[in-house]
Amino acid sequence: MKTILITGCSSGFGLETAKYFLDRDWKVVATMRTPRGNLLPGSEHLRLLALDVTDAESVRQAVEAAGPIDALVNNAGFGAAWPFEVIPMATVRELFETNTFGTMAVTQAVLPQFRQRKAGVVVNVTSSVTLKSIPMLAAYTASKAAVNAFTEVLALELEQFNVRVRLVLPGRSPETRFADNARSGMQGADDAAYADLVTSVFASFRAGGPITHARDVAEVVWRAVNDPSSPIRIPAGADAVSLAEPR
User: Fold this and answer.
1) Which residue in the list 140, 150, 178, 194 is annotated as catalytic?
2) Of the candidates 49, 68, 74, 109, which lies 20 to 30 Å from 135 by C-alpha distance?
3) 0.90 exceeded by pTM
4) Is 140 designated active site?
């Protein structure tokens, strides 16, 4: 029985992905900053571990406690929507610490075992905002685009060790906390010069049209982990697939 470690399992894509792999007879190490046992179904194949991807000691302890794994899914992250002129640089750094450096730190901690066994899969979950630019997401998009570039270079480095690296790009989803987190981040940043833009962008979060469901992402992560022929970049969700199509 194979084992997968997934970060950011407290909600949304990470939570659904953990359930998806459990249902398919994988051992799942589900991590989150504050583990809560009521989020996932009880199973002898499930382990919950505390993991703050921005804390080096937390990363070390979680990877050590997890033991040998066959796949890593870097899903932990958060969103923030601000006009770049007014976003605090502390928030920019926080975005990169979690979305970018957190992904890199967990990956680096896991790679030695993959390299030594000459087997393993790394899946990094970013966003379709790297396929189509959206106002007020400059810092968030930059933090995710950096992971895209990191993933593609890492794939080249690890190919010689039979370690696969894949990138999953979800679209807009009502089943995550992105919009709520982004909206709370805007408090105190209602500069009158950007009032119309703020209103239109948040309206777009609620707009109709194609969306991404958490299960869409779980299915694509499953494909990325289990299908060696899968492409390095895989969109997840109807809207992301549409954005990724050649025009």
Assistant:
1) 140
2) 74
3) yes
4) yes
Measure the CA angle with vertex 163, ends 157 and 165; round to 5°: 75
- Please state the rounded mean pLDDT for residues 117-145: 96
Identify the pLDDT of residue 190: 54
CA–CA distance, 53 with 98 (Å, rounded to integer) = 6
User: What are 214's two structure tokens?
Assistant: 């958490």
Cα(103)–Cα(123) distance, integer angstroms: 10
Sheet with strand 46-50: strands edge to edge: 46-50, 27-32, 3-6, 71-74, 120-125, 163-170, 233-236
The amino acid at residue 201 is V
- β-pair type (163-170, 120-125): parallel
What are the residue ranges spanned by the domains of the chain? 3-244
Q: What share of the chain is helix, strand, coil (3-state, %, to 5)?
A: 50, 15, 35
The answer to whether 123 and 147 have CB atoms below 8 angstroms apart is no
Q: Which CATH superfamily is domain 3-244 in?
A: NAD(P)-binding Rossmann-like Domain (3.40.50.720)
